[in-house]
Model the fold of this input.
Amino acid sequence: MDVIFNCPHCDQELAVDAAGAGTEIECPSCSEKIVIPAPGATGTRKESSPSLPTSGEVHPINPIASSAAAKVELHLKVPVRKEPTESLIEKPPKPLDAAAKESDRVLKVKTIRRIDCVEVGHDHYDEQVAKFIQKIGEEHIVEFIPVNYSYLDIGTQKQLNDFGVMIVYKG
Done:
């Protein structure tokens, strides 16, 4: 026969064999030391096995309580750890712009316009951009932003469209 009672610390319902009355155990839920109360003490109930009705008696039988699954004893323990548990999921690295803001290096911006790279009819835009990227190093680039703009050509007095690039980097 089992004695059913609640843990005085965490109010977890526990069922223990009546033979263990007076024994000190550790609560599987809160790990506090508790003493198993005697059967019939205040705050306890008895769990009795269902008996077959005698002639003339009618007792409702709970099919779940009388099943084989209900009679299987489970001895489960809640794991208790002294030190913090390890993390099984790795955090992703911070985005470059957030990492750049937290570092001791400041963010800098370089704008390269195509019109500034034209010399005597030769366009050196690509070489200038590649030269700058090699100079600062690709690992320091935070963002690479293409730019379209228009300007007034002084010689022809016409509105012209051009392009360039704005490079945000850690300096």
About this structure: The first strand starts at residue 2 and ends at 6.
